[in-house]
Design goal:
heterodimer, A: alpha+beta, 6-stranded antiparallel beta sheet, 5-stranded mixed barrel, B: alpha+beta, 8-stranded mixed beta sheet, 5-stranded mixed β-barrel, 22% helix, 40% strand, globular
Chain lengths: 447, 480
């Protein structure tokens, strides 16, 4: 059974008390998650899980050790705390470690909606059936997910940090496919089941699948592109991972390194991380219990600041923006709620402005070829179209791109006025608009 | 444990399950990492729970909980059945499973020196010695090393009467040196990238890698990459080393031959496959030099077990034989669709995940060449080593791989170093361009502990045996 925020905080405080070291921090995560999966117009997997775990970080001088468990009886919990202390005593000192963070006031809005708990296996099955119906009636096949998740996170430390909150999400993805290779995609992410319309989502994917039937070949090359929000979100994720955290910034493997205050991207691009926005989902504190602060990362194309946690803020002499991941963390602080500021263009106007180019619904299997310049390679999928004379023309077979994200975001001609909330499976979510980019290099095509 | 599992099975049956299986999994881990002389993390973790999979009203349901209290176990079994019944809303054909006898057995993987009994001091000494050796090279700006150990104890029971206990230990280690200059970051890893090598085994496997002894060479090569020649663009002959070829096998033979993917079950997330059921026994997947096996019985491989996670015994099966496509990776449910029995590829990422069709040890079988002879036989080409980046389309056709390092081959000899080499291709065309595979002397099983699939995401530990091989007319230097 999932813990409430208060129960999770109590467990975290208890673990801190059981950890006999110079300092202690406990992170409790408790989750009830259910996911209904469908393919070929029938539900083929339907799963639910309930789990509560605790991770304890012990501090001995400048030494740290971490132990975690999901066995929460008194004996197992005490043993976990002892393992953390034992690891800390044996670990070498980290000379840059300045100690655990002191408490700072955190706003914890109510992000749990009762409709998510009521969104049970029968309701999810009915939602899946409604999605499937939109494809089946058009002789298409649908695949995708309908999921409902509720989780609680609490953090306490020996300096008095004591925070906790719950979050609920409803997420759905739909891939509709025709027998001739057409495919369309639609997704939904929100904090309440009432915001989710399965029929509308299934309809959107099915219409796109019909429209992308009969794809033709297109020669690789540099094209003007319109990226739909789902594709933009992929690029934003990689930019955040590779370049917007303090660790790659300090290690000179980020495009931001040594370039704060310089014009790095198009003046049309402003990127912030803001977990407190009413438009997003997720925790408003990080995994050290510090408030996630709205952080301007790129302001009208100018590099402003990476996100930090207590360790990297102290090391670099920057403010703690509250972006710690759970310890031990080899990645450093990470933005989890990225957003690109909305522009003023309608997507129809962006397409209308393109003489000869490509429209991309989303990307697939993107990976990094060069972290500093954020050179990425990946494929398009589920709705790639040629744009001719300002109109979506014929669908094209999926294309491979090899492209620097930094260069691409330096060639922005328009930013969409509407933004879509797009989330990964766990944690955070991006607010992404569509983008019109003047240069995007496609380097290959699939069969 | 048997009593607990029997209780769950009985609860599932009483609730209306026509079939149910139960797994109780206890996983313990230890991870250590160092970066530039600082120990970044020393952590231990354990996870224990029970997962129940049930068929009711012709559909699947799965539920899992971390509580092993008697009432919780009964509740989770009933929940699995209730979920299955809800799934039936869209059922057209009831789930059917291939035949399987009941097994009562136990299995244990190899482990000579229990890594959980080796002192933290000894582990950190090894890690920091390798780290220091990497940083002795001034051009190395970031030195990274990691050790990881996992023990899994798993008990399986099913309503057909099976009761199987399994236990194995995994050990992993790797180091990477990064040379950074003029906005370029150039990694060089040992014994493999993305965390190194991972095996079923104990501390003895880590010692055998000799991380400190190899660190000097790795650092020198990272430094050399700074001034190395860029990868030429065009169509070339390439020779691919074992670790990179392991990933090539993984992405372009392993995933497309997963039968659940071919049947469309993964379409919305990881994608489908270019293969169809009609390709079985017909498609020339590769050249005559390409033979690929799925083998869950190789001692010490990350892809080995006694029984898969639906109680099917470990097997060795041909997937591609002399270039001809001969077999899928299958489960009890998917095998029925091709009129076969499961070849034992159902694996779950812990107690809280339902099993999926996964790779075991999927290997390119060795050929007859020695590597020196293969290089000597190559007039003009590039020898590429160690993966740096990978990407493949949603039907597993168009792929692009980048490697950490390359070497020009001219007139049968290795020449100058090449930085950031990459290559791209289309799966069957690529495997049909293979004209030589090195011998068993060069063949090694490489562990891949990060194979992602499924929703919710599951990470499988799989493996691939490979020896260096040669491919003709491959597009290299993409986007360079």
């Amino acid at each position: 059974m999932m813990l409430t925020a208060e129960q999770a905080r109590e467990l975290a405080r208890r673990a801190v008390g059981l950890t006999h070291a110079d300092g202690a921090e406990a992170l409790v995560t408790s989750e009830d998650a259910a996911l209904t999966r469908f393919a070929d117009n029938r539900i083929h997997q339907n799963v639910a899980e309930s789990d509560t775990g605790i991770s304890v970080r012990a501090v001995v001088g400048k030494r740290m050790g971490v132990a975690s468990t999901n066995r929460l009886d008194d004996t197992s919990l005490a043993a976990c705390c002892e393992r953390a202390v034992a690891a800390a005593r044996l670990a070498p000192e980290d000379p840059d470690f300045r100690g655990l963070p002191s408490p700072v006031e955190v706003m914890t809005p109510d992000r749990v909606h009762p409709s998510v708990r009521a969104f049970d296996a029968s309701a999810r099955a009915e939602a899946a059936a409604a999605i499937i119906a939109q494809s089946a009636v058009r002789d298409l096949t649908a695949a995708g997910t309908v999921s409902a998740t509720e989780y609680t996170v609490a953090v306490a430390n020996s300096l008095g940090v004591d925070v906790g909150m719950g979050v609920s999400t409803v997420r759905s993805t739909v891939l509709s496919m025709s027998a001739n290779g057409g495919s369309g995609w639609a997704s939904h992410l929100s904090g309440a089941a009432g915001d989710f319309s399965p029929t509308a989502l299934g309809d959107e994917a099915a219409l796109l699948a019909l429209r992308s039937d009969g794809a033709v070949s297109l020669d690789p090359g540099v094209y003007t592109v319109v990226l739909a929000p789902e594709a933009v979100s992929d690029i934003l994720d990689f930019l955040g991972y590779l370049g917007l955290g303090a660790k790659p910034y300090a290690e000179e493997s980020s495009f931001l390194s040594g370039k704060i205050g310089q014009q790095l991207l198009s003046p049309l691009i402003s990127i912030t991380d803001d977990a407190t926005s009413a438009e997003t989902l997720g925790l408003t504190f990080d995994f050290e219990g510090m408030p996630k602060r709205r952080t301007a990362l790129i302001d009208a194309g100018v590099g402003r600041s990476p996100v930090t946690d207590s360790y990297w803020a102290a090391k670099l002499g920057l403010p703690n923006t509250g972006h710690a991941l759970p310890a031990p963390n080899p990645y450093g602080p990470m933005p989890m709620n990225l957003e690109i500021a909305a522009g003023d263009a309608r997507i129809e106007d962006m397409i209308g402005a393109v003489k000869h180019g490509v429209y991309v619904t989303r990307f697939h299997y993107v990976n990094v070829e060069d972290p500093v310049r954020a050179i990425l390679t990946g494929m398009t999928r589920d709705g790639t179209f040629l744009i001719e004379d300002g109109r979506l023309a014929q669908p094209v077979k999926n294309l491979r791109f090899t492209q620097s994200a930094v260069d691409a975001l330096n060639a922005v001609e328009a930013v969409g006025e509407k933004r879509t909330l797009i989330g990964p499976e766990d944690g955070g979510a991006n607010l992404a608009p569509a983008l019109l980019l003047s240069n995007w290099e496609f380097t290959g095509q699939t069969r | 444990m048997r009593e607990l599992i029997d209780r769950a099975l009985q609860a599932a049956s009483s609730a209306g399950a026509s079939y149910a299986d139960v797994r109780v999994v206890h996983t313990t881990q230890e991870n250590l990492s160092a970066r530039n002389g600082v120990v970044e993390g020393v952590s231990t973790s354990e996870s224990l729970g029970i997962g129940v999979r049930a068929i009711a009203s012709g559909s699947w349901g799965f539920a899992a909980t971390s509580s092993l209290e008697s009432d919780a176990v009964v509740d989770v079994a009933r929940q699995a059945v209730a979920i299955a019944k809800a799934s039936a809303l869209t059922t057209r054909t009831p789930v059917e499973l291939s035949a399987l006898p009941a097994y009562n057995d136990s299995w244990e993987g190899p482990c000579r020196i229990d890594p959980f009994t080796v002192s933290l001091d000894e582990k950190l000494d090894l890690l920091l010695a390798a780290d220091a050796a990497l940083r002795a090279e001034p051009a190395v700006k970031i030195a990274k090393g990691a050790l990881g150990f996992i023990r899994v104890e798993k008990t399986f029971g099913s309503t057909i009467g099976s009761f199987i206990e399994q236990k194995y230990t995994e050990s992993a280690a790797g180091i990477t040196a990064y040379a950074i200059e003029d906005g370029e970051i150039l990694p060089r890893s040992y014994p493999n990238s993305h965390g190194g090598q991972a095996v079923q085994g104990g501390w003895e496997a880590i010692l055998a890698l000799d991380l400190p002894g190899n660190a000097v060479r790795v650092a020198e090569q990272a430094a050399g990459l700074i001034s190395a020649a860029p990868c030429p663009s065009g169509t070339k002959t390439i020779v691919i080393d074992g670790p990179q070829l392991a990933l090539q096998v993984h992405e372009s033979i392993g995933h497309p031959t997963e039968l659940d993917r071919v049947l469309g079950d993964e379409a919305a997330f990881a994608g489908t496959s270019f293969l169809t059921l009609e390709d079985l026994g017909v498609l020339q997947y590769g050249s005559e030099h390409v033979t690929v096996t799925s083998d869950a019985t190789i001692p010490g491989s990350l892809g080995s077990f006694g029984y898969d996670d639906e109680g099917v015994p470990a097997q060795r099966d041909f997937i591609v034989k002399d270039g001809l496509f001969t077999g899928f990776l299958s489960s009890r449910e998917s095998a029925v669709r091709i009129g076969r029995e499961s070849n034992g590829c159902m694996r779950a990422d812990g107690w809280n995940r339902t099993p999926l069709v996964r790779m075991t040890t999927l290997s390119l079988e060795p050929g007859g060449w020695s590597l020196p002879d293969l290089i000597a036989d190559t007039e003009d080409g590039i020898y590429m080593e160690t993966n740096n980046s990978w990407s493949i389309d949603d039907r597993r056709l168009n792929f692009q791989f980048a490697c950490e390092i390359g070497w020009e081959i001219k007139s049968g000899e290795l020449g100058k170093m090449i930085k950031n080499p990459n290559y791209t291709g289309i799966t069957p065309q690529f495997w049909n361009s293979c004209d030589a595979v090195c011998s068993a002397d060069h063949w090694q099983v490489w562990g891949i502990p990060n194979c992602g699939k499924g929703e919710p995401m599951q990470v499988a530990h799989v493996a691939h045996g490979a020896a260096p091989a040669r491919f003709r007319d491959v597009q290299v230097g993409v986007g360079r």
